[in-house]
Amino acid sequence: MNLYPIQFHPILKERIWGGTKLKTVLGKDITSDITGESWELSGVKGDVSVVANGEYEGKSLQELLDEFPNEILGEKIHERFGNEFPLLFKFLDAREDLSIQVHPNDDLAKKRHNSFGKTEMWYVMQADFDSRIIVGFKHRSRREEYLFNLQQNSLLDILDTVKTKAGDVFFLETGTVHAIGAGVLIAEIQQTSDITYRLYDFDRKDANGNKRDLHVDLALDAINYEVTDTQKSYSDRQNEANTIVDCPYFHTSFIPVNGEFNVSKNGERFTVYMCVEGHFSLEFDNKKYEYKMGDTVLVPAAMKEYKIDGFGSVLEVFVP
Questions:
Q1: What residues are designated binding site for Zn(2+)?
Q2: Are 124 and 162 in contact, with CB atoms under 8 Å apart?
Q3: CA–CA separation, 12 vs 145, rounded Å?
Q4: ∠ CA(210), CA(213), CA(218), 5° rounding?
């Protein structure tokens, strides 16, 4: 394989709650006023990313994994997941509140949908004044209380709401009831899954006057009714990988880039960088690759030594 850091064409998704920040803040090439998601790196069937740069431009992520699984994923990750890419990377722009929803765990998702579950995390890149995140219950709940409040249109009364700002991080294990609030732009890292159970959608209607489907019955066994600790604190030592989330599915660190530093990897697993502020460059094999806020790049496992330079903030992600 010809090694180099690989970028992909974003897969843009219009959403009833989407807006324009993916263009105005992140510079994505969109014309719609309701683009809610930019899938940056995806192996989801039907939405597989296509390479945007270098020798493999035009090839799909799946084609690369079929041809170079160990070089890209790393032997350990290949042994664990085969030729499937285990994570999904997105940027989301919530002009309006997203629906209140929940994701099933691996066992439930496998049984019902032959899919992975959906553990995820959010890094808040920008938030309008007084914007919020809905995460979990205010107090320990139970199925009966949840259903009563859902039927009475008072679900928000028992859910926890957190005011949010740029730099906040939320880690959402499967079963956590949640919603991104209006005015929030986030970077999302999750298991490769598109399974969502929608609980409540604020009674809004789509362009055709129809309400979106809810999945109340499916969600009952997926919900964690306990109080959850979702917001994460982290350090910000410059030019170092400051751990934010370390779970079985992904390890995410925050790197404040200020100048130049060397990176050394063991070749066992791929690394993904998401630029969430400013800009940075990656130098490998005497070539320099430039990235700005809103860019996502896959560094194949076989790229063991490289240099990072710039001024900005980067999320570094790998599979443990």
A1: 103, 120, 178
A2: no
A3: 38
A4: 170
Residues 187 and 314 in one domain: no
**Do 42 and 172 share a domain, yes or no?**
yes
Are 312 and 274 in contact by the 8 Å Cβ rule? The answer is: no
Q: What is the pTM assigned to this prediction?
A: 0.94
In whole angstroms, what is the distance from residue 138 CA to residue 134 CA? 10
The verdict on whether 198 is a catalytic residue reads yes
> Which one of 80, 198, 204, 269 is the catalytic residue?
198
Joined together, the tokens standing for residue 308 give 């990072």
213: DSSP letter: P
Residue with tokens 């070089």: 71
Dihedral angle of Cα 8, 313, 317, 85, to the nearest 10 degrees: -10
Binding residues, by number, are 103, 120, 178
Q: Quick one: 304 and 192 in the same domain? A: no
pLDDT in tens, 81-128: 999 999 999 999 999 999 999 999 989 999 998 888 899 999 999 999
